[in-house]
UniProtKB/TrEMBL annotation:
SUPFAM superfamilies: Creatinase/aminopeptidase (SSF55920), Creatinase/prolidase N-terminal domain (SSF53092). Its cofactor is Mn(2+). This is Xaa-Pro aminopeptidase. SMART domains: AMP_N. GO terms for molecular function: aminopeptidase activity. It catalyses: Release of any N-terminal amino acid, including proline, that is linked to proline, even from a dipeptide or tripeptide. The keyword Zinc does not apply. It holds the Pfam family Peptidase_M24.
Length: 516
């Protein structure tokens, strides 16, 4: 399908116009007039506020408290080109999604502007009034309606009007054409009476250019501004370290949908076993269930059988799935709200672990349980890893695999055991699979667990085919067990506990599904 009528042809025609050369859309006035007429009026009523609206307002208030007196500019980002004139499905920046409550498809090019007020005189007693700027759906009497393949209703279906998003979000909205003034008015050097503008950079090149031009024009130091912008990025990560009740509900939904996907993967194993790309059968089974339930993926699925399971981010998924191997499936459903799960199970393809597979699996499970045992308020985040890795090192020592004593391996100067688990045990989880990534180290790795934090516990052991430091029987075995964990007032909840974890429970669960 083509998007626009061609105006010039031949070698003089600008390259960017040539994408339209296949268009046969008429350009007659009669056509345009007829296209603009006889459409039923929109009589639908505006909806009430989304359930997320009060939570998003509280999140904006938390940002507001950090930056009184300063204008904050938080873009959703533009559509991203996949190839030529085809875009990826739109996903807004997670910081924007968090502060607006908008999820999938909403809203390319939108920008949230938080305008400072007198202290405490803003939205909900905060220091700012927020407005959402975006391009509302064009009317059916416009050419955009049928001629713009990126935004026109005839091409991509209805998009929100200003009134619709205002009603859903409980937030004033304004046309994107007013954004430049909103960002640049009275912006300038603070010492000279100008307004400081902080931008969530590297999300929308147009916003970056708008703000940078304004800074240059008003004599604001670009280098200093860069670091001030960085503090906004950091703040948007840090306010997501503790999830609110709405977010926790969304994550529970994502985990439940992920468990459904694992169920369908087990059902797909007989087909996977006979297929030249069995791992793709597994990947497809998980994805199909996610899509059928209205969801997407938070990251590319890792469907890794046999030695491929020892490749930490194996997303090629083009291998076979063979009888007697372990299948490592690391997959997470992302809900429409954009909250994602991140779960791994390592399954015996034929339904039963061999003795050596069971031994390695049990060591990884014991490591996970050691991390669970310290997952409570007051524990340092980094100690989750410490607890898990100690158990793994002890097992590796007991199996005679460490080239040095256990004590030496566990010392900072040693760490030989990390050869078989070079990744961390935990990361925060939420809108991004590796959530809160721009938070300061003292709030992340050296931070202390608090009620409402959600993270993974995901120890593993990976013995590659080529690993001459281990006996042959270990080679080609990769095991990871990954659960999603919510810190409560006095401990934690394993959000993914409904997916079997022990070897016996996994075997029984697989048998039940395959025999049903
Ligand atoms: N799925 C990526 C991770 O576990 O971090
Ligand atoms: Mn993970
Ligand atoms: Mn994972």
């Amino acid at each position: 399908m083509s998007t626009d009528a061609t105006t010039t042809t031949g070698s003089d025609q600008p390259l960017e116009e040539r994408v339209n050369n296949r268009s046969q859309r008429p350009s007659s006035e009669a056509f345009k007039t007829f296209m603009a007429s006889s459409w039923a009026p929109d009589t639908s009523e505006l909806p009430g506020a989304d359930g997320v609206a009060p939570y998003a307002a509280a999140r904006r208030a938390a940002v507001s408290a950090r930056f009184p007196g300063e204008r904050l500019v938080i873009p959703a980002g533009p559509l991203k080109v996949r190839s030529n004139d085809t875009d990826y499905r739109f996903r807004p920046h997670s910081g924007f999604a968090h502060l607006t409550g908008l999820g999938l498809d909403h809203e390319p090019d939108a920008v949230l502007v938080m305008e400072p007020t007198d202290e405490g005189a803003g939205d909900n007693g905060s220091n700012h009034n927020a407005t959402l700027y975006f391009s509302p759906m064009a009317g059916r009497d416009t050419e955009e309606f049928y001629s713009n393949a990126r935004t026109g209703e005839f091409w991509i279906g209805p998009r929100p009007t200003l009134g619709l998003l205002q009603a859903r979000l409980g937030l004033p909205t304004a046309d994107l054409t007013q954004l430049e003034v909103a960002i640049t008015k009275n912006a300038g050097v603070v010492e000279l009476g100008g307004m400081r503008v902080r931008l969530l950079r590297d999300v929308d090149m147009n916003c970056d250019a708008l703000v940078d031009t304004s800074r240059i024009n008003t004599g604001v130091d670009l280098e200093v501004s860069d670091s001030l912008d960085g503090e906004l990025t950091e703040a948007l990560s840090e306010i997501r370290l503790v999830k609110d009740a709405w977010e926790i509900d969304e994550m529970k939904k994502s985990v439940a949908a992920t468990i459904n996907g694992f169920h369908d993967v087990v059902r797909s194993l007989d087909r996977a076993l006979t297929h030249p790309r069995g791992e793709r059968v597994v990947e497809g089974a998980f994805f199909a269930r996610a899509r059928e339930e209205g969801n997407d993926l938070g990251y590319d699925t890792i469907a890794a059988s046999g030695n491929n399971a020892t490749v930490l981010h194996w997303i090629n998924n083009n291998g076979t799935v063979n009888d007697g191997e372990l299948l490592l499936l690391d997959a997470g459903v992302e809900a429409e709200s954009l909250y994602t799960a991140d779960v791994t199970r390592t399954l015996p393809v034929n339904g039963t672990y061999t003795d050596v597979q069971r031994k390695i699996y049990q060591a990884v499970l014991d490591a996970a349980d050691a991390a669970f045992a310290v997952a409570k308020p007051g524990t340092k985040f980094r100690d989750l890893h410490g607890a898990a890795i100690k158990v793994l090192a002890e097992n590796l020592d007991a199996w005679g695999l460490l080239p040095v004593s256990l004590e030496e391996a566990l010392s900072p100067e040693g760490q030989q055991h990390r050869r078989w688990m070079p990744h961390g045990t935990s990361h925060h989880l939420g809108l991004d699979v590796h959530d809160c990534a721009q938070a300061k180290a003292e709030l992340y790795l050296d931070g202390v667990l608090e009620e409402g934090m959600v993270f993974t516990i995901e120890p593993g052991l990976y013995f590659k085919n080529e690993d001459l430091a281990v006996p042959e029987e270990y080679r080609g075995i990769g095991v990871r067990i990954e659960d999603d964990v919510l810190i409560t007032a006095d401990g934690c909840v394993n959000l993914s506990a409904a997916l079997p974890r022990t070897p016996e429970a996994v075997e029984a669960w697989m048998a039940e599904i395959r025999n049903s």
